[in-house]
Amino acid sequence: MINNYVFRKVKNRLFFVLCLACVVIAVIPLLSILYEVVSRGAPFLSLQFLTNDALHGGIGPAIQGTLILIGLTSLIGIPVGILSGVYLAEFGDNKYASFLRAINDVLTEFPSIVVGITAYSVVVIGLIGSYSPIAGAVALSIMLVPIVARTTDESLKLVPNSVREASLALGIRKWKTTLRIVVPAAKSGVITGILLATARIAGETAPILLTILGSNYFFQGFRSPMDALPLRIFRDARWDNPRVQAEAWGVALILILIVLSLNIGVRLAARGRFKR
């Protein structure tokens, strides 16, 4: 009996050490990237660098363009993704649900360059006729929707059926039960999916390279080319000038800080800390 207890204790300790080792292995590359970006990018941070246009050595248009793209993409993609996930989880008990889930999984793994070419062919050439933030938002929405839909679907499935049955037993219609009880119960998982999707689209380069083109000026309209941080990093890194290449690290640091700020802000809002 004692030997069995000691053996189980050793196995438990060994498993803990292995898990800890895996965490360390996963964190080391992340910390090394953060250290490299912060150490090289921090010296370039200044008010002029953040607010001036590209012609005066700043990245103001790129910051503005990234925020506009995230906002437009969220307006287009998040409602579609959430409603798609709700349908698959709550009303997807028909023969089309498995097919839709398969299509959603395929879209999740779609190469970003293919999404960019598709948006370029359909939106830039076919519908609008010019590079524009709308074309970029459409391209990024194609990448955002399947992620949000998948996480919403899985989050709603984790809500116990007893919650639904209790609501239905009170005479509440199914759609009201879904929107007012089931979705709020799965709020944390849905928000996590939105954060994952937003973090991914914020750093995508290929789709916006083919849809918004880039610009040295601040926002000129919804039918004009626009700058963005991933585009600025891509262009600066390709220059032969060492100083311009070094500035790309500063742009990368700003992009990381924007994504981090969005994540923290949404998390705080989800916990109700912004309620009066």
Topology, please?
Layout: H1 2-41, H2 47-51, H3 60-90, H4 95-108, H5 112-128, H6 133-157, H7 161-169, H8 174-185, H9 187-202, H10 206-209, H11 229-237, H12 242-270
Helix pairs in contact: 1-12, 3-6, 3-9, 3-11, 4-6, 5-6, 6-9, 7-8, 9-12, 11-12
Number of helices: 12
Instruction: Could you tell me the CATH topology label of the domain at 61-228.
Output: MetI-like fold
Largest sheet geometry: none
Unreliable parts:
272-276
Mean of the pLDDT scores? 88
- The appropriate CATH architecture of the domain at 61-228 is Orthogonal Bundle
The Rg value, from CA coordinates, equals 23 Å
How would the global form be characterised?
A: globular
State the distance separating the first and last CA atoms: 59 Å
Helix % is: over 70%
Indicate the structural class.
mainly alpha
Order of helices and strands: HHHHHHHHHHHH
Q: State the CATH class of the domain at 61-228.
A: Mainly Alpha
For this structure, what is the CATH homologous superfamily of the domain at 61-228? MetI-like
Sheet-strand content, in percent, reads under 5%
Number of strands: 0
